[in-house]
Design goal:
Blueprint (H helix, E strand, L loop, with lengths): L2 E4 L4 E4 L6 E3 L21 E9 L7 E7 L5 E6 L2 E7 L5 E4 L8 E9 L23 E7 L13 E7 L5 E7 L5 E6 L2 E4 L2 E6 L5 E2 L3 E2 L2 E9 L2 E10 L4 E4 L3 E4 L2 E2 L2 E6 L12 H14 L3 E4 L6 H10 L2 E5 L11 H15 L5 E8 L8 H18 L4 E6 L16 E4 L12 H11 L5 E5 L19 H16 L6 E4 L5 E8 L2 E5 L13 H10 L5 E3 L6 E3 L2 E8 L3 E6 L2 E6 L4 E7 L4 E8 L2 E10 L32 H4 L3 H29 L12 H9 L3 H8 L5 H11 L6
Parallel strand pairs: 23-24, 23-30, 24-25, 25-26, 26-27, 27-28, 28-29, 34-40
Antiparallel strand pairs: 1-10, 2-3, 2-4, 4-9, 5-8, 5-10, 6-7, 6-9, 11-12, 12-15, 13-14, 13-18, 16-17, 18-19, 20-21, 21-22, 31-32, 33-35, 35-38, 36-37, 36-39, 39-40
Helix pairs in contact: 1-2, 3-4, 6-7
């Protein structure tokens, strides 16, 4: 029988140039510098040491050393002897160390590296690559006769349920062992052999959130008459298909996949999180009403998939083949895909294996991208013929690109209304794509906008305000959820997360697109917009309670509720509304001074205190660089303004001739600042977006408004000059 010994305490950690310290796993050396901005978090090799006594075992037992994750590469030495190495920071790996153990004291050394290289994914992406042994580790003592532990970090037993046309189910069980006789028990039946099939006449189906029912397979392995090894494997019985017109079908019923994507890291902890941390994260996802989660951009911990099984969350999981196709890392991508599938095969929540994310963003041997995706798809279907493959396409990927024909289903990452474009462009873009590819299921793998918890009475793209995030997601909910053919939609992101090269909205080192803050303590107002659409339990939420000081004769108050009618009371004066889209907008006259607002529906109510002020409160506004008031920029109908997209402005020769020198000036200034920063750092730092081709960069730039480009590229440009540029554009007729 197995004995599991946790291996978390009393590790000595050595970072070059620093004194060794004692740490407890999980641990990362980038918990602070990976979140503080500058794009300069430390990347290199650190050494973990552990002294331990050899565990008690018989001569008929083996000892395995198991790690759930060490980023990004690990080389293990025991008592001065090389044990093995593993490349890929997100999958489980283990080594048989039986023959290297000494009686009494033993010394283990694990060299872990997240150094820049071109042979291990990921290397170029918009998130922090934390280094360290950041997941659990353990010793496992097993009989020499045991379920296989040497193949890709798997458990040695695969469970393949198939629902038959008549409603019954066949559950195929396949086991790899080192010997002995396997015996399996399921639902009162018992079968012997390494390849068996159970028949269940009336199965209870795993049906997402409606009924996430799990069976338990009991797997016993006997050495003669002695029980040598034993596993209990939860699994679910379900069928699904993805239709290009009808979307996701679960057990023969339409089951719209509406949810979020998420990273694993936490504020102050990085990716060195606990099981309780992940349980809290997924509780937010569940409470929002999500039916699906995209576990981006890498394999997550086994506990995460277990929780998704139990909560009924349909999962898209993927490997970190992201942003940049590296020919030298193809073997690593193959390995990570095989590990992802082998280790997660038995989870009913998983329905698609993700091949790549925005892989055409950066330079690379473009001729090998398509055949390599075909190879990855082949690996998936060879190892698992029960699930589909998918891919997250960068917004600028042409709709006739040959990559689109590779995965079984696909999705696009679109940010119209934030990274350029217009908010209302999102739905029509997918309608055009669907008309062009009527037989190809398409979904939305990323959409979102930044909210740094600023506030504005006149929200607009690029202001990082809570109110614009509300506008954005209200619009996207109505556009996307009404299009049944979209097989899945995933908000980017469920939580704010670390992207050390970023500095946006007054926050360094962070992507603030989350519906929940990085520390999981605050659900932003947009979170409740989804809850109003996706949950049945009565709910009501009064938005903007932190936006206390409000200017103007009137103020807008927004209430999200899944109840049919909401009443808003302002100092006792009542306003009632019915709203089928769940977004209740009230524009009311502001009383003088302080006043109370109460929102109520059914038995639910929320209230908050507000104050009428003469001028906008600057404490609510993002004021890095140039500060413009909403009324400073005039937008006369039929004429250009700095709020127009660059792609529209450049349609006019006169307008293009006017703005091109400004763009050249901003590019030169940005290059100079980058060079100065690198000189100060004494080395070249990795920047988010490095490696993007000139054509891709130009296509992305064209989607932004001129004002957004100024804010990003020349944040210190004087307000007066921006107004002057706008006045000039106001004189040029639109094409």
């Amino acid at each position: 029988m197995r004995t599991i010994i946790p291996f978390h305490e009393d590790w000595s950690f050595e970072k070059p140039g620093e004194t060794a310290v004692i740490v407890t796993l999980p641990h990362t050396w980038n918990a602070i510098d990976g979140q503080d901005g500058g794009g300069d978090f430390w990347r290199g090799e650190c050494i973990y040491h552990k002294d331990f006594s050899a565990p008690k075992k018989t001569t008929q037992e083996d000892v395995y050393l198991e790690f759930d994750g060490a980023a990004n590469s690990a080389k293990i030495t025991l008592n001065g002897q090389f044990v093995g190495e593993h490349h890929g920071g997100f999958s489980r790996f283990r080594f048989n160390v039986t023959d290297l153990l000494q009686d009494g004291a033993n010394h283990l050394e694990v060299a872990v590296s997240n150094a820049l290289c071109d042979t291990v994914y990921p290397q170029n992406a918009d998130f922090t690559f934390y280094g360290g042994i950041y997941r659990a580790a353990r010793l496992i003592i097993v009989s020499r006769v045991h379920f296989d532990m040497d193949t890709l970090g798997g458990c040695g037993v695969r469970v393949t349920p198939r629902v038959n046309v008549d409603g019954s189910a066949d559950v195929q069980v396949s086991a790899q062992t080192t010997g002995g006789q396997a015996v399996f028990e399921l639902d009162g039946a018992k079968l012997e052999g390494n390849e068996v099939t159970f028949h269940i006449e009336t199965p209870i189906l795993w049906h997402g959130r409606k009924n996430p029912y799990l069976y338990t397979l009991k797997a016993s392995l006997f050495d003669s008459d002695t029980l040598a090894d034993y596993l209990e494997i939860p699994f679910g019985i379900r069928s699904f298909r993805i239709d290009p017109d009808e979307g996701f079908i679960l057990n023969g019923e339409s089951y719209p996949l509406r949810g979020v994507a998420m990273h694993q890291d936490w504020l102050g902890k990085g990716n060195a999180i606990t099981a309780a941390d992940m349980e809290e994260s997924l509780r937010h996802v569940y409470d929002m009403g999500a039916t699906t989660v995209r576990l981006a951009h890498y394999q997550h911990d086994q506990h995460t998939y277990d929780l998704c099984d139990q909560l009924g969350l349909v999962v898209w999981t993927e490997i970190p083949y992201i942003s940049e196709h590296m020919d030298n890392a193809r073997d690593n991508a193959r390995q990570q895909m095989r590990e992802l599938i082998e280790q997660n095969y038995n989870h009913p929540s998983i329905v698609v294996w993700g091949l790549s994310n925005e892989i055409t963003m950066a330079h690379g041997d473009q001729e090998t991208i398509v055949p390599f995706h075909q190879e990855l798809k082949g690996i998936c279907h060879q190892m698992d013929d029960t699930r589909l493959t998918t891919m997250a396409c960068i917004s600028t990927l042409p709709v006739d690109h040959p990559l689109l024909s590779v995965p079984d289903v696909l999705s696009y990452n679109h940010y119209f209304g934030w990274y350029g474009g217009h908010l209302e462009d999102n739905g029509p873009w997918f309608d055009r794509f669907h008309a062009l590819h009527p037989d190809l299921p398409v979904g939305v793998s990323e959409y979102g906008c930044e909210n740094s918890l600023w506030h504005s009475s006149h929200p607009e793209p690029g202001d990082y305000s809570n109110e614009y995030q509300m506008i954005y997601h209200e619009s996207l909910i109505k556009q996307l959820f009404s299009r049944r053919y979209l097989w899945a939609t995933h908000v980017w992101n469920m939580f704010d997360f670390a992207a050390d090269a970023r500095e946006e909205g007054g926050t360094k080192g962070r992507n603030n697109k989350g519906l929940v803050t990085f520390d999981r303590k605050t659900r932003k107002d947009a979170f409740y917009a989804y809850q109003a659409w996706l949950t049945e339990q009565p709910m009501l939420h009064l938005c903007g309670k932190e936006f206390i000081n409000r200017d103007g004769d009137s103020a807008e108050f927004v209430v999200y509720s899944n109840l049919p009618e909401v009443t808003l009371s302002v100092n006792g004066e009542e306003y009632k509304k019915e709203c089928p889209d769940h977004f209740f907008h009230f524009i009311v006259s502001q009383p003088k001074g302080a006043y109370t607002v109460v929102a109520s529906a059914g038995d639910l109510s929320e209230q908050a205190q507000f104050t009428h002020v003469a001028q906008p409160d600057p404490a609510y506004r993002f004021q890095q660089g140039t500060v413009l008031n909403w009324f400073d920029i005039t937008t006369p109908e039929g004429y250009y303004s700095v709020k127009d997209l660059l792609k529209d402005i450049t349609q006019s020769q006169e307008a293009a001739a006017f703005v091109n020198p400004l763009l050249t000036e901003m590019a030169a200034s940005r290059t100079k600042k980058t060079e100065q920063k690198e000189q100060e750092a004494g080395r070249k730092t990795q920047k988010s977006g490095e490696g993007i081709s000139a054509e891709a960069r130009r296509n992305i730039t064209l989607q932004f408004s001129l004002l957004q480009l100024i804010r990003m590229g020349a944040p210190d440009l004087p307000k007066e000059r921006i107004i002057e540029i706008n006045k000039k554009l106001n004189q040029i007729p639109k094409k």
